[in-house]
Structure formats: structure tokens, C-alpha cells
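Dear colleague,

Following up on Tuesday's group meeting, I ran the structure prediction for the two-component complex that the binding team flagged. I've pasted the input sequences exactly as they went in, so you can double-check that nothing got truncated or mislabelled along the way. The C-alpha cells for the whole assembly follow below. Feel free to forward this to whoever is handling the docking comparison.

Inputs:
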Amino acid sequence: MRSIAPEEARARFLISSRFFSRGSNRVKADAFIPHPFLELSVFRTHGLAEAEVWSIGDSVARPQGRTLYGRAEVLAEAVVKLGFGVVPAEPPPLHAHITGWPADDRGAQRIRAVELPAAARLVFREQAP
Amino acid sequence: MKTPIALDAGSPSPKPVFAGTQVPADAFITYIRDGKTLDDFLRDFPVVDRQVALDFLDTLVRHTTVLAQPRAEMLDELYDIYLDCRERNWDGYGAEPISYDAYLAAQKFIEAWPLNLPTAEISAAANGEISFEWYRAPDKIVSVGVSGDRILSYASIFGPHKAHGTEPLTDEIPAVVTAHVQRLTLLQNAK
């Protein structure tokens, strides 16, 4: 299994409109709360063209009949700096997990989720409603 | 309607009085608080015109409506979120549904929220909590989650200082939460 370079970007695809604010153009902390798991599902996007990135997002959203609104993009380096781990988790191809979430402590999990948006860039899929 | 209240310019520290008199407006409030009536007040302060006193009451009602508007908007937003997120997997990643109990708990939170503090953006979290977020900057943020078991989880970042924990949801907002939002407001005002 390949290792992950620090400068690589990771995308959390946004399939709920509750997870971002168009007004302040930012991802909300709730987008990163990993429940029901203890790792957050993301995809490697480093080196991919935009169309390829959205194609991966579609593969997450379309089978569920959902709208892909955009993605929260974080650099592996920034995530690791916050004390999380980033590990490959294929299949599916390019899938990875952000690990290091506290279990059974909602306050502790919330503060970790609140830290992540500072390291995230919100990218809208413009054709989303 | 003429303005029912004026400032008593003759006083060194001007106070609101009924227009055209020197009767303090808060004297009327004191009467009501003590269980007396409008007629009692007008009998004891005959210089106050009945219509002026009624206009004063109308003004209070209008101001209260304006103050309560943000709360009404939060309650509307909460209901939309409940409708949106009450089925499992509403986020496409296996999220817990927002339960009716969580909705009621969040409603209680909104109703208890002091009107003199800023209102929050509301969203939902995958663990079934309804989230309230006060955001000023990426490193200045207060986030509160309300769950159906009536436990609040909170997480706050003020630059290098961070805090988190849980509190029971009662009839009053936990002091730690209001203190954090006040701190955020002060940081913003200090900019």
C-alpha cells in the first residue's frame, strides 16, 4: 500500500447542504464528524484534473440518488499537524481515512471537528442547486 | 402615533419619561410588576394621558417582537433541519437520524438562549446532534451540539486557547456556553 505525501490533498465530498455556509464560503465543523465510524472517509485528489475529482464525488453521491454540492479539501500535512493520521483505505481507488478521532466523548470529538475547517478549502460544484 | 417617551432633559442624568411629563417610564413597569393596573397608574399619575400610556405599551410590544425575531428565525431553521435530517444516512455517509427528542431539546435550547447574545448558525451532525455554531474566524469559533438525551457537547477555539466538554441541558443555558459566546463577541468587538 502506498504512503501519503504531506502535500497531497484529500477531499471530503459534501452531499448534504447542511455542511457548508454559502454566505461565509466555509465548511462547517459538522462536515468532519466521522460518526458512525472512528475514521473520516476522504479521497486523494492530488494530481487529478477537476473533472476526475468530481467524477469520484459522483461515484459517492449518484448511487445514493444524492446531490454533490462540493468538497472540503484539506492537505495531508495540515491534517497531520493537527494530530490526525491519514492512511490509505482502498478499495475504492484513492480512498483514505483521516484517523485519530476520540471515541465515546462527544465534546472531545466536536473540538477535533471544529479544528479541521481551518485547514480546509471549500470547493463548490457550480452546477449543484 | 407621537413618541410616547421622551428624555427628561432637566435631569443631570436624563431618564425616559412619559412625553410632556416628568413621570419616569419605569414607574409604569413597576406598577405592572407589583400587580397593579393601568387605571391604578393613571389615577396616581393624572398628568399622564391614557393614550400616551397605551402607545407606550404598543412600543414595548413592537420592540419585543423585534428582539424575538432572531429566535423565531432560529426555530424555523431548526424545523427545516429536522425535516431534512430525520432519516438515517441523511448525509450520505451513514449519519444517525435527527430524532424528535433531539429536535425538542434543540427547541428548548433556542427558547432558553438569551436574546442579548448573538444567534447561531444551525446545522446537524452525523452523530444525531443538532449543532449551533458561532463563527467569527477559523480560529475563533464556538460550537455546541444538542442531542436527544439532553446533553450538550461544546467546543470552542479562541486563537491558541481551546476548550471542550459536555453539560446537561436544563431550563438555562450552561454558563460555560454563554461565557464562550460572550468571549467571542468581545474578541470581535476588540478587532
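Chain A has one domain: 9-124.

Cheers,
M.
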